[in-house]
Specification:
- The chain is built from eight helices and five strands; from the N terminus they run E-H-E-H-H-H-E-H-E-H-H-E-H.
- With 171 residues, the chain is an alpha/beta fold.
- A five-stranded parallel β-sheet has the order 2-3-1-4-5, sandwiched between helices.
- The structure holds shikimate-3-phosphate.
- The site of shikimate-3-phosphate (S3P) has 10 residues, from loops.
Length: 171
Amino acid sequence: MSVFVNNIILIGFMGTGKTTLGRLLAERLQWSFVDCDERIVDRAGMSIADVFTKQGEDAFRALESEVIDDVLRSTQQVVSTGGGSVLRAANRQRMKQGGLVIALTADKATILRRVQGDAARPLLQGDAETRIEQLLEERKGAYDFAHLFIDTAQLTVDQAIERVVRSLDKG
Ligand code: S3P
């Protein structure tokens, strides 16, 4: 495995499989797994839904940037980021410096199936399908800065992991 990759940073829209793939990939590489959303919850002392309701999205985004900055001070981690973390240029820059950035993608129907009924995602409350359509449109191109892209709708988790591991071997 390449010694030049400090961290693997997973980006992608909600429901593209960042946490599921991240956990298993970390096990495979024997690296730590860090879920930025979990760190935000720890730091805020409340759920993400509560941060949005009580403090607003800007406060959430500020916490998110702090967490990304802190997490990427360490190495040998698979880092799962929140789907909106790519919206700030400073976060994108920090991620690109911090390791290999992998964008997970999936089609709208797959995303909808994976996130439907999930009360923990404040941005998808209401008509989830319409919200997904709106956000996908708003975020068009936002994940394009990644070094590598993996369509998780077309692959099993094991296949997706193999793809990452192969790319590291080549690096
Ligand atoms: C968000 C995605 C969520 C979480 C928050 C906002 C977004 O993370 O950070 O609800 O703006 O896309 P996941 O992508 O892990 O669901």
